[in-house]
Design goal:
The protein has about 60 residues and is of the alpha+beta class. The chain has two helices and two strands; from the N terminus they run αββα. The chain has a domain at about 1-45.
């Protein structure tokens, strides 16, 4: 799994292509690196929907 992930990340700056289609908010597909890596619907979709309208306060930088 590490080799697959590293290979995708190191190829991206060289080719401009990560090896799967770009992210689109209509589908929210993402590459999941697991035992059998695949492009799937966002695995945290339920969590994303819960916080989509939340306004996060700025973090203090001091």
């Amino acid at each position: 799994m590490s080799a697959k992930s590293r290979g995708a990340w190191t190829a991206f700056p060289h080719t401009g292509e990560p090896g799967w289609s770009g992210y689109a908010t209509e589908q929210r597909l993402t590459k999941v690196f697991a035992g059998e890596s695949a492009v799937r619907a966002c695995p945290q979709e339920r969590s994303r929907r819960l916080r989509q309208d939340h306004v996060f306060a700025p973090l203090p930088l001091r």
